[in-house]
């Protein structure tokens, strides 16, 4: 057999052709540049070999389409959208790729004048996916790959005065694709900026800056390596701080290079909390580049990593480049919004998962203060499923390809103080090529740490990194000497797919407790939904929605931000869990607060403590304390000066503490809330207050309906089915279906591995009640209806013996006391249940909601750090969280009362002790069935869930299950609540009051 001929894009040993040496990204505003963004002619082909003859020559674009650059062609109507997590879309036969290889030929004509031509012309692509050839005026000038890194070509010898033709041929598949199998949409094209740079004969080609610190962490150690284009040259430099000159000097090159060292006493230090930057201008003749150095030192000491001598904890997020309309083309503005949001939500670190981002992303991280793990564009996850995961990672024939990806990243980004670790890639097993990459990175830059999760033994990395480690495993890592005792980071955890994750606090507690654990990065920042508009409905598509197969469906909808950047409840939760100030109550004290300062560099003198004494969620006393001073990693106690107050019946008293910014920062104004916590003062005096008695209740029975009524209320019971059939007043039915037991919730993504058991084995969605006994008796000012029932699910031996006791008071209230005794006559039963509760329905006209409980946003037992007890108002629709993929949502915990109103009247439900609540305009079945929000079928009545207990969310779509304490086990239970119909005004004022009149 003859050896198969390798096409250019099937040769991993061919790293590039004609491409300039990678160099640091810096700003050179003294140079003239032409942006080549905008319209290009475009020819889409099924294979590169189908390129028309002479396509690379000027004028060949007749009849071609046009396309805007930057963009991905799949979102411009070419090729098709496809999402996979792990799978390559073709046979694994490296370096060969499919003959059917979608190809885009781009062409642009650019007019250059004589003045321009005095200098050199550099063509710079910031990102092209996945490999591409370039021709200028018909001449081949180069070839490059690595989709998420820039490529520059010196095209001076090909350009001329007048029109110049630039042709770029982009290949969807290349040998590089084997190294770009990240979990994301497959997208192609010129998707980042393109520019032409007018470069004088003498310029600064490269300028690498290391800005470190001496051992005392006081003096800045500044080194700079300048490379000029010409072998000999000279220039000057100035380093300033807020426009004040700090140091300056001149230099002269030898062989085109100059090395400068300087020291800056009492230097302002960069950290994510204090992003102090200097301004550096370096000139060479007319040429002037600007760089923003930040002085800081990253090192490992005593098995921990330190920044500026201080142990730090990473509270991070994984960030992909993503835009709901543009795919991986992301504007500066959008990135800036991301960075601002991260800062506002207490995030202090970001991992560029899983490739280098746009150059300006790092400028923003420098400026606003985020620690960055910069990750090489390298993942070959699909090999795992071939049973030969190491195939190319351990094949020396791929060495250059692996090393190139790390080296070019380091060369581009090394001036950025924000980067504290270089990551060699993601999910690519381990082998000699990673050993080489680590070696090459260290040669280039010894001032940062090396990360790669796939180095399971931490053989060449500086940190031991794992992902989705369960708490048990994490504890083992924390407590055992292993993996060279290197400090540990969780490069991914807290899979934010759909509703969830819950249980984040348990991780944060571990990170804070154990020395070895230095934090983690939540997976991930965005839901990668693709916005579409059909029939005037806008919604987001995920894998499979474009007919793509195979796919991992909505596994890409796993961010703490919705595609339109609305923070999901998960982000609010994460913010509180990682908040740098932990608020505790001093045990046995009522109003003494302990603040733990988890900032690594800031003392608490930059925050204000705002406190309020709340009665049923409303402030009755409040104040501010502005004299906090705890040093980093220390605590302080604060006495809250609460004055004596009257304790009223049926009221809760809370101490609500907020820690807010004292001053403006560049990402949030003074007053911005950093952390908040509410403490129950536990001084409640409960008393059931029956309303004044009304007219005598009459009891009639007809056609299986028992009616208990007077002028205040009509309660109808079904004597056969044993239910409260309706609650009416003045001829209108408010409660249209009384309580029946329910254990099921519309499957959340984090329950994906339980769903089959729950729904196809234990049939928890198929529960039903059997009436055992129905009786009633008249009491003073009340009628008591007692119904005994059995509740169970289809073909199950386990269930509940239930007793419903309804007391209808002549004052108009209906008290429901439900008790359930668990029964098991066989052996099989689910490990736990989504919930134990009841389901009811109210008339569809009751769309206004109010409640006193945890809120305002949805919350669950293992995810309510950001919720507080209060009285909130909304609408039934307004209480839903519209997850891209429909699932259980909108639950509120500890609800003491809720109200459903139309314009005049209210169905009021008051619970004893607080219950879980959910109000929605759809049934659980329709939620379960829908694939998009607009497919959720609206029900005619409002569906009400009241839960004795609701299971936590967990993070089990990829990670830890619900913790044991958040799993609802089969158990005896009792729940009590009261229903009545009152005037709406009463509710709007202060609903609790009516029980006291
Ligand atoms: C990790 C991987 C991520 C993503 C995540 C699941 O294994 O590194 O890229 O696939 O799982 O969403
Ligand atoms: Mg992967």
From TrEMBL:
One of its GO terms (cellular component) is beta-galactosidase complex. One of its GO terms (biological process) is lactose catabolic process. Keywords: Glycosidase, Hydrolase. Residues 712-980 form the Beta galactosidase small chain/ domain. It catalyses: Hydrolysis of terminal non-reducing beta-D-galactose residues in beta-D-galactosides. It is an enzyme of class 3 (hydrolase). GO terms for molecular function: beta-galactosidase activity; carbohydrate binding. It comes from the Bacteria. The keyword Hydrolase applies. Its EC number is 3.2.1.23. PANTHER family: BETA-GALACTOSIDASE (PTHR46323). Belongs to the glycosyl hydrolase 2 family. This is Beta-galactosidase. It comes from Sellimonas catena. The lineage of its organism: Bacteria, Bacillati, Bacillota, Clostridia, Lachnospirales.
